[in-house]
Amino acid sequence: MWIASFHPQLPLDLAFRRWPEALQENLRATVPLVITESKRVAWVSRCAEECGIVPGMSESGARTRSANVMLVQRDIEAEEKALTEAALWALHFTPEVSLRPAGLLLDVSASLRLFGGVAAIVDRLRKGFQELGLTASIAAAPTATAVWWLAQYDDGVMADQDMYANVVDALPITLIESLAPHAETLKAIACRTIGQFRKLPRNSIVKRFGKAALTELDRCFGSEPELMAWYEAPERFCQRIELGARVETTELLLHSARRLLMQMTGFLTARFSAVTQFSLLLHHETVRLGKSPTTRIDIKLGAASRDLEHLTLLMKEHLAKVVLESSVIEMTLSADELEERAAPNTELFPTAASQSEMLGRLIERLTSRLGPDAVTRIAITADHRPEKCTVHVAPVPAKTATAKSGLSGTSFPPRPTWLLKAPIPLVTRQNKPFYGAPLRLLIGPERIETGWWDDEVIARDYFVALNESFHLVLWVYRARISADDEEPGWFLHGFFA
Description:
Layout: E1 2-6, H1 10-16, H2 21-30, E2 33-37, E3 40-44, H3 46-50, H4 59-65, E4 70-73, H5 76-90, E5 97-100, E6 103-107, H6 112-115, H7 118-131, E7 137-141, H8 144-153, H9 164-169, H10 183-188, H11 194-198, H12 202-209, H13 211-220, E8 238-247, H14 254-270, E9 273-284, E10 294-305, H15 308-320, E11 328-340, H16 352-370, E12 377-380, E13 390-393, H17 398-405, E14 418-429, E15 432-434, E16 439-450, E17 458-467, E18 472-479, E19 489-495
Parallel strand pairs: 2-4
Antiparallel strand pairs: 1-6, 1-7, 2-3, 5-6, 8-11, 9-10, 9-11, 12-13, 14-15, 14-19, 16-17, 17-18, 18-19
Helix pairs in contact: 5-14, 8-13, 12-13, 14-15, 15-16
């Protein structure tokens, strides 16, 4: 099964999407926009068409029809770049994407089951093109040539193996490109559809119209193989887009940033990779004294991801904290650090891996909103002193944390869940520590004697003690030597749950 997307208004789409998204719908209805090529009108907007401007008209003729007409020169380089953006989005659904003039061809035979059928792929493909600001005519058929003709003729045609031949036979003969020089001859013999052309003798077709037309027919109906040049994603992702207007607030940047993220996630899908760090560069209009012409936003992920919605959410949180010093006119997105990752398996029940990914996304969102220093995790350090054996570090995946600590296989004596900020001195009665009632020592002693290297030496014997009157399990110790802030005796250091 093949899917084709034909973009008949590509030059117009590129001209309109230079304006902010909120204004585009109104501008399409009110602005007479014309795309010119070689001093002639080539594409016209709906409003320009209502003013009487038609393709083929001269520029001066267009001005006479409407004083408000906006003439824009066709930019072929920008069209090729826009098709590349569309191809990167199409890579979400299949690695077999081929670029065509003003369109794409996708072989989705191997992707139908994964995405739930051809209709589901077409729907998601269309929504992506709409976000990219591109108008698309999309069709599906069993061969590449047939689907390309169908997409050029009408939008939304999905023909299966049993019916596509009848649908193609009803198409106009003008869709066969090699027959364009023979339009008058075909008109003279009343050959208007592809079905009528197929009924002509094959030998006479070759003699009168050339072999190319017959080859296209054979490819359309599967009699001859179709060779495609597949689009290959670049080795490194770094895309830059120009904004249509000067942007003063970060809220208006999110739509353009999402366009870049759509391309990046397609690149990651094609490369079987996920991103762990990416950066967004905001290029400003002017360079103020002592200010950088570019604002850089670095986004680090706790776990590698290529989920578009998740990355968009992180981008939104980071943009909300940026204060623009001057207007933004261009944006650049680059994938800085990648990690190889296969496609995820569909799970009936959540696994440990999926739950860890959900936790990682929560941590990333909190970090993006509150700042990198506001969200931390507790890590074990190589120090036996209870006050210094843990530190607060940046949140990272549990696998990485275990590997870095080097203490994953270490077993410790019982430790309390609540450690006091400072030990509390205890009184002794009949040579026993007292805390509301006499304490009975259950486990111990555990001797900790260390700290000589930083002048905070301790020498303690720790016990697990029971207060039978209040049913409390305590962690107490007996200081063996005098320190600057600690006298020999008994101290309470924590509570067990």
